[in-house]
Amino acid sequence: MHETLAHLLLRAPILLDGAWGTELQIRGLAIGDCPDALSLTHPDWVLGVARSYVDAGSDIILTNTFGANRIALARYGLADRAAELNRAGVALSKQAAGDRARVFASMGPTGALLMMGDVTADELEVAFREQAQAIADAGADGIAIETMSDIEEALCALRAAKETGLPVAACMVFDSGADGAHTMMGLSASDAARALADAGADIMGANCGAGIESFETVCRALRSATTLPLWIKANAGLPVLEHGSALYKTTPSEYTSFVPELLAAGASFIGGCCGTTPEHIRAIRQILGQYHPKG
Fold first, then answer.
1. What whole-number distance in Å separates Cα of residue 125 and Cα of residue 104?
2. Residues of the domain holding 139
3. How far are the Cα atoms of 153, 226, 228, 267, 271 from residue 221, in angstroms, in the given order?
4. What are the pLDDT digits (tens) for 141-179?
5. Per the count of CB atoms within 10 A, which of 143, 151, 159, 226 is most buried?
6. How many domains does the chain have?
C-alpha cells in the first residue's frame, strides 16, 4: 500500500471536503463558464473554497481541476492550457492545506462518449495521462477520479493516474436501477468495484448522483465486492429549481444523520458532493469525532 494512503488510513474514518462547483458559483462563477479557468483568473475564489474546507476540518481536500482535461477544456478554447490549469489548481489547494490537510487532485469525465464514437479509448488515455502527470508534477498527495458514469472511461482515467505512482481513488455515479446502485449504463456497484480493483484502484467509491439517503445501499454493494477502502461523497439531495437556480435542500443535520450508517456499511472516507458546504463538513467532523478524534 502507498505510504501516504497507509498513513491516512491509520486515522480512518477520514473526512473529505464538500462541493466545489456550487461554492464557486456563490463566489461568482457564471453558469456556462469554465470552472477550471478560475485557478488563473480568480485564484482568490478557488483559494477561498479550499481554505473553507480546511477550516471546517477536512483531512483531505480536492482541487479545482475536475474538468481540466484537454477534451473538456476544448469546449472553452483552453485545450492547450490543460497542464497549466492542473498545476495551478493543485498549487492553490496545497497553499490552503498547508500542514493541516492532504490534497487529492480531482479528475472528472471528459464529456465525450466512447459508446457514441465521440472519442477513442486511446484519446481518453492521452488526455488523462497529460492531466495526471501535471497533477503529480505539482505535488498532489493523490488523485480522485470522480463522477464517472462509463466504466470504460473510468478505467482509462485510472490507468493514466496509476502511472504517476500516487494513490488513486476511483469513484462512479450510482443512481439507477431498482436499487439505485447501478450506473446510468446499467453496471452494478459490485461489478464496478471488481473492475476498478482489478485495474489497480487504491480506493474506490461513489459520488454525486442522488442524495445521501441512497448511499448506504451503494456502499454495501461496493463492500460486498472489495476489501479496498471506500470513498463516499453524496449530494445534498437532488437539486430543486427556484428562481432559475438549482438549490440543494438537505441541511447539515439531515445529511449527517446518515453518516453513522455509511460508516457501518464500510465507508473509510466521507465527505460531500454537489450542494454540500463547509457547514456540512463541519457537522460531519463532529460525528467523526465520536469515532476517532482529530489530532
1. 20
2. 3-288
3. 21, 9, 13, 11, 19
4. 999 999 999 999 999 999 999 999 999 999 999 999 999
5. 143
6. 1
